Amino acid sequence: MNQTATKEALSFEDFKTEVLNDYKVATISRECSLLGRREVLTGKAKFGIFGDGKEVPQLALAKAFRNGDFRSGYYRDQTFMMAIGQMTIQQFFAGLYGHTDLAHDPMSAGRQMGGHFATHSLDENGNWKNLTQQKNSSADISPTAGQMPRLLGLAQASKIYRNVGGINQTNFSEKGNEVAWGTIGNASTSEGLFFETINAAGVLQVPMVMSVWDDEYGISVHARYQTTKENISEILKGFQRDEDNKGYEIMTVKGWDYPALVETYQKASQIAREEHVPVLIHVYELTQPQGHSTSGSHERYKNADRLAWEAEYDCLAQMRIWLIENNLATAEELEAIDTQAKKDVLEGKKAAWTAFVEPIKAEQQELVALLNSIAANSANKVFIEKYTNDLASIKEPIRKDIITTARKVLRLIVKENGRAQLSAWITAYTEKIQPKFSSHLFSQSDKNVLSAKEVLPKYDETSEEVDARLVLRNNFDVIFEKHPETLIFGEDSGNIGDVNQGLEGMQEKYGEFRVADAGIREATILGQGIGMAMRGLRPIAEIQYLDYLLYAIQIMSDDLATLQYRTAGRQKAPLIIRTRGHRLEGIWHSGSPMGMIINAIRGIHVLVPRNMTKAAGFYNTLLETDEPALIVECLNGYRLKEKMPTNLGEFKTPIGVVETIKQGADITLVSYGSTLRLVEQAAKELLEVGIDAEIIDIQSLLPFDVNHDIVKSVAKTNRLLVIDEDVPGGASAFILQQIIDEQKGYKHLDSNPETLASKPHRPAYGTDGDYFSKPSVEDIFEKVYAMMHEVNPVKYPSLY
Known about the structure:
This is 3-methyl-2-oxobutanoate dehydrogenase (2-methylpropanoyl-transferring). This protein has about 800 residues and is α/β, with parallel strands linked by helices. It is built from 26 helices and 22 strands.
């Protein structure tokens, strides 16, 4: 590489300084990996997965990475994070130890293992920072290739900002000039999410640069078992763009060749940034000096020849040779850098450990002093002193040691005077410490969903009864007019206005960038939404049917649902996921796997409106909040009649609030969605035999009845039936747990609380399939009647 290959204006001395600084960063990173492994093996850290062997290509990536750009990467990118100035030595080790303070571990406050990197998109109040003035990393996740769908959305945001007028780009973009950079290990390219994302990015033509770090192995499994032809760039050649076809620019470069790497990444940056063309860089001939992780040794599966080759072509060793051969440094100068790096890393490690353990030691000493005081006046002095001495003898305690000791001693003094003092200490300690591990599952800003207030739909003499889909369509029209940063996309969402015509005419009016069709690829539809929401847009990702959500459930669960939590509130993606489901015909279009969904995506709100006016109100509410949510529209409700509100875009359905849609005295019936119409019909028929049922629409499964209104109903009727079209033990089990356990509804029951759910199989095709697979009006009637028969068999004689 000549002296001006990276920056033409650099003098030789400036160039030399820059290159030697790169070598220093890489050497520090390598020392962190080496010392980090020892910290795990000596027990100070739980697990280690490091970026050794990948240092030099990450230096090249960092040189091409600009303010405003985003990374969505792989858990070996520590050198990159150091090179862009977003991670120090001490922070590296704080993450390894699991330090629960963001000031020490800004990546995740100890919530993720080391090697998972993030920058702060939000301030301490949950407000956006200026993302264009900083280098950004979206928060990593461990599932292999799980970073890929989000990467697509991060890149697509630049395309939206460049091509859609009227959006306030402040804090988020400079005319769409930002590149989204992805990294992945070669073995993980075997995952479907990788191929789905690669295809989608080629179709969308977004500014995405995908780096594949190729060291020939996936843990112990060689590339011959991972990839056809053992070469990802070779099998992706069909994606290469040409004069007649859009596609990718595909590049290959050796991972130990510093000058070629710098040149390759500069070229990739220019193509993606200026032309909005995706680029794939296959970085091959990389090594992994310490093996996959601290869980094993690569000597077990690499032969002597491979190990010898890795020693020779270690990227740091090759960079060292290049520096000397090109008269950029002497061996002695590099040795001095190496020595200083070892010293700096050791000092940083010690500082991180001291910062981690000293607060815990102070808590240990505080409890020891309290227990000694309590023991002095206790009949169980001997036993308390044993616990106290055991705790005091731990040289490097963890908080589990402290709280476990306190709780065990509490049992010994439950009838003594010291109980109140120790109980108060445990309560205060738990209130102080528990948030370090449990905060920010949801937004704690003033824009959280619970801060939104209900606004009722308004009607006047001109309000007509219309097909319910028109309420949605007209409300979307107002949303797109009112919120230029809002866009919607999915299968059949664009040209035909979605399969149920809830978006009829919207693409023609607002353009293909804002109302867009997408391929049959649910996971990356979700990923588009996540990435764009992380960059300040307000996307609505449409999954055609609720059954198809299962294709995307992993991305929802592992990435979107955990985002606020795993960054301790410093990143967010207020994505709205739109789908339709519940009762229809056939195995594949009538599923209601709500139990699976609500238990997999804690961190995302799950909203189940009974009609389209309620659904429209949820969209209006969510667009004024900063949290992600899933809205399940009733698939059989689009052609039913509803009145057209006069305040479209303004009325808001409250989240976490139930609605009593019929008052009653004898029993509380709880349900949601399409099944409510059957419950209402059954209630009318029950009145004919003298049973007065109260009906409550849940509306929101997550959060669930924040005002505890259902238990107030149960206190009045003393009986409870939950009706749900999920499988037995699905959502009905969750609903019952919330009412009986969380709301303490058991105190008011005179009868056994019961549930009525579907059969444990998918619904068979046809109307009869629905009737015999899911709760019917007759099922609901007879279930309630049987419960009342138990109460008064004379008044309600047995039907069977």
